[in-house]
Design a protein that fits this description.
The protein is mostly beta strands and about 120 residues long. It has no helices and 11 strands. Strands 2, 4, 5, 6, 9, 10 and 11 form a 7-stranded mixed beta sheet that branches. It is globular and about 40 Å long.
Length: about 120
């Protein structure tokens, strides 16, 4: 069982920045994929960014060159650096840990990001 706790969300003006953190209950060095997803009411949860322990990253086209995912294995934490935020980035952001055999993986409870002037 892996427990995930997200933090760092909040209200920010368009063009602003936030850094989300996902603290895990154990070592993340061996977890194959750590990802950030987001969800808005009425829409399916979507993958924003993912990082593998092999060093590969993936970003949704809507956040490329604005968001950056990275993990700090020493702190068992995965971060999502978000810059040039837009109102369309408003959502609940969820952290996910997954690897082969974990099915849907493990999820945190989310942190709300609101981009508004």
């Amino acid at each position: 069982q892996v427990q995930l706790v997200e933090s760092g969300g909040g209200l920010v003006q368009p063009g602003g920045s936030l850094r989300l953190s996902c603290l895990t209950s154990g070592s993340i060095a061996s977890i194959h994929v750590m990802g950030w997803y987001r969800a808005v009411p009425g829409k399916q949860r979507e993958l924003v960014a993912a990082d593998t322990n092999g060093g590969d990253t993936h970003y949704d086209d809507s956040v490329k060159d604005r968001f950056f995912i990275y993990r700090d294995n020493a702190k068992n934490t995965v971060y999502l650096n978000m810059t040039e935020l837009k109102p369309d980035d408003t959502a609940m952001y969820y952290c996910n840990a997954n690897q082969i055999g974990w099915g849907d993986g493990y999820w945190g409870r989310g942190t709300q990001v609101t981009v508004s002037s």
